[in-house]
Design brief:
With 668 residues, the protein is mainly beta. It has 2 helices and 44 strands. The protein is globular, with a radius of gyration of 26 Å. The two termini are 24 Å apart.
């Protein structure tokens, strides 16, 4: 990578128009795009080229080329006795493979991926046909995996698929408890909040704690959800601002093929849901970026266009009812969304208000607020529920507790609300004297029943308080409903003082998360994962719907919107300093991506990327974000929407109050 002072003036040439904007490409010698050697297991006898997608190329275009190669192989007429087998064909799902062969007559195919014991075999029966394109999930890393295929006439073949090892703390999780026949069948999918293996963005464990699926990408996905069509959706690993705000959402299958990427202004964070009509309701940021995590977009599934928005500033005064967790610019901290079709109520969780708000989806009028009413002066008192004390779980009547800094709040089928009550401080900013010390605190899963007629709330169920600070997590975490009395909960960031974490640390693990499944108030399954977990989901690899389609080309949807300048930026373009960093500029769908590394020993903190139109003096400013785990000043990143930009723009950089000159010229 060249330093600034050595870089000649580069022109960015307009090549493609996306949505309502233009996306430039950098006029710079391309990086090598040579693919690694094909990853094909011995039975295929082919020179089929498979490898990681080039991050400097359009991912979906590269993916289409892989599809084309697969179609070519399909025409070669492989048989079950000698099938074509491609391990990790799309380059991001190393424990998945694609197996293809043909039969003379239509037949179903039964498949078994053999596990370390019979309880963790992965089985599926594929629909009848003569052309069989079979995605295989659940391979072990670093092993010669046995996979058997059986036809309806009894014909069979057992093949071996050898995978590369995964040297990471995420390779194995610890099963602390497993009650046979009581826990929910399926894989535990984890969205890590951090990993020591930066190339693992998501993973899944079987009931023995062995990893059976992961994505080998640098970035984080959150959350991972099953869609109505059987595919999964999660945030993109590409970010619009640092490593926290994703470009948007992507629909994909477990083999690693991406079918749709939805982008939106300000990026996506924390959560999204699929509405009954298929649209996506997405947690985002306000378009002007003046405040964060307080804005919701509904995107058309067909076009990606924004069809509805919810701005939390229209419902609350940002100075009212604040949590001790409040941070400048992050007054609401929207971390989950849910929808109740029976009451037409959409629910938003406000971590930094210690409560959840119910809003009429159609009229967009606020219905109620579920949370501690202490410290509120500007919100209508009629919006609050009054606790109705009842005896639950053999607990005393006065054991009702509000939730604080909650996560994963959602409606249940009967209208009740569950959430993971992190319990951070267990007090509002207005009554700091009542805050609970960490060593006396606890986290829990909790279920509330609300009565909107008399505005009362009952606490129907709770689990976690009895574990005390041993299971306390002040942030992230999750809860999922299985059935009445049956829940799966994740305490995503156990304290280092936890006895569970201490045992893990003795084995060299520094971050731990506990997944606990409770049925009728008894723990029936408990898994200790060696990273912090934002959320977990219990899912099967296969559904009744066929999720893989070789013929469907992935598409981009939506728009980043017109670039808005950052408020509060400080710079002086007339006072420039020689550059002290390495920099690169790449084009991406609907935006320009700026990234680099500071060379100074004293890494600058913060900073901005500035582009100035030479003809009109239009100036746009976007913040630089730190990368690599938030280590301020080492590696930086910025994203500029290209929508509506026209002409030539000079690029400048700022950091620690200094403005640095750049020889980059962007032409739109």
């Amino acid at each position: 990578m060249k330093r600034f002072g050595q870089i000649k003036i580069l022109a960015i040439v307009l090549l493609v128009a996306f949505v309502a904007g233009c996306t430039p490409t950098v006029a710079k010698p391309p990086l090598s795009t040579a693919s690694p050697k094909p990853t094909v297991v011995p039975n295929s006898q082919t020179n089929f080229e498979i490898g990681k997608m080039d991050p400097n190329k359009d991912q979906l275009t590269t993916q289409a080329k892989i599809d084309k190669s697969l179609k070519t192989e399909l025409k070669r007429g492989y048989k079950i006795s000698n099938p074509f087998v491609a391990l990790n064909p799309y380059g991001i799902s190393p424990l998945s493979a694609l197996v293809m062969f043909q039969t003379k007559t239509a037949t179903k195919v039964s498949m078994t991926v053999f596990g370390h014991d019979r309880s963790v075999d992965i089985k599926n029966t594929f629909p009848a046909g003569t052309t069989h394109i079979l995605p295989v999930y659940g391979l072990y890393p670093g092993e010669k995996n046995k996979v058997e295929f059986v036809l309806e006439d009894g014909s069979k073949n057992k093949i071996t698929i050898e995978t590369d090892p995964l040297d990471s703390v995420v390779t194995k999780a610890s099963v602390l408890k497993k009650v046979k026949g009581q826990f929910t069948d399926g894989l535990t999918f984890c969205d890590p909040s951090n990993t020591t293996a930066e190339s693992v963005s998501s993973m899944a464990y079987d009931s023995n704690g062995d990893i059976r699926w992961y994505l080998n990408e640098e970035g984080r996905t959150k959350p991972t959800r099953r869609l109505a069509n059987g595919r999964i959706m999660s945030s993109t690993v590409e970010c619009i601002d640092g490593s926290y705000y994703s470009v948007g959402l992507r629909e994909m299958d477990l083999i690693g093929k991406i079918y749709a990427v939805y982008v939106l202004p300000g990026g996506q964070h924390h959560d999204f849901i699929e509405m009954p009509n298929g649209n996506l309701v997405v947690c985002g940021n306000s378009p002007d970026q003046a405040t964060r995590e307080d804005y919701v977009y509904e995107l058309s599934r067909k076009t990606g266009k924004v069809v509805k928005t919810f701005d939390m500033k229209k419902y609350f005064d940002i100075t009212d009812g604040q949590s001790i967790n409040k941070k400048p610019g992050d007054w609401f901290h929207l971390n989950s969304v849910s929808y109740n079709q029976k009451t037409n109520t959409i629910l938003f969780s406000a971590r930094n208000l210690d409560g959840v708000v119910g809003i009429d989806y159609t009229s967009k009028k606020m219905k109620w607020f579920l949370g501690d009413s202490e410290g509120w002066s500007k919100l209508d008192p009629k919006m609050f529920f009054k606790p109705k004390l009842t005896k639950i779980n053999s607990l005393a009547k006065n054991d009702f507790q509000w939730a604080y800094a909650q996560h994963a709040a959602s409606f249940l089928p009967d209208g009740d609300i569950i959430m993971f009550d992190n319990g951070s401080y267990r007090a509002k900013k207005s009554n700091r004297e009542d805050l609970v010390p960490v060593e006396q605190n606890y986290s829990r899963g909790v279920r509330f029943h609300i009565n909107t007629k008399d505005m009362t709330v009952e606490q129907l169920w709770s689990f976690g308080k009895e574990r005390g600070d041993d299971w306390y997590s002040s942030y992230i975490s999750d809860i999922d409903y299985v059935a009445n009395g049956h829940y799966i909960m994740t305490s995503g960031a156990l304290l280092s003082t936890s006895s569970i974490a201490k045992k893990a640390k003795a084995k060299g693990v520094t971050n731990t998360a506990s997944v606990v499944e409770v049925k009728d108030n008894k723990v029936v399954f408990e898994l200790l994962i060696n990273v912090l977990c934002y959320r977990t989901e219990r899912m099967q690899f296969y559904t009744e719907k066929n999720t893989y389609d070789m013929n469907e080309r992935g598409k981009y949807y939506g728009s980043f919107g017109k670039q808005v300048s950052r408020a509060g930026a400080s710079y002086d373009l007339n006072s420039q300093t020689s550059p002290d960093f390495e920099l690169k500029v790449n084009r991406s769908y609907g935006r320009v991506v700026i990234s680099g590394t500071w060379n100074s020993k004293n890494f600058p903190s913060g900073g901005y990327a500035i582009i100035v139109n030479k003809s009109t003096n239009e100036t746009l400013v976007t913040r630089l974000s730190a990368l690599k785990g938030g280590v301020a000043g080492q590696m930086f990143y910025a994203s500029i929407s290209s929508e509506g930009l026209k002409g030539k723009y000079q690029l400048f950089m700022t950091a620690s109050g200094r403005t640095y000159k750049s020889n980059y010229v962007l032409t739109f």
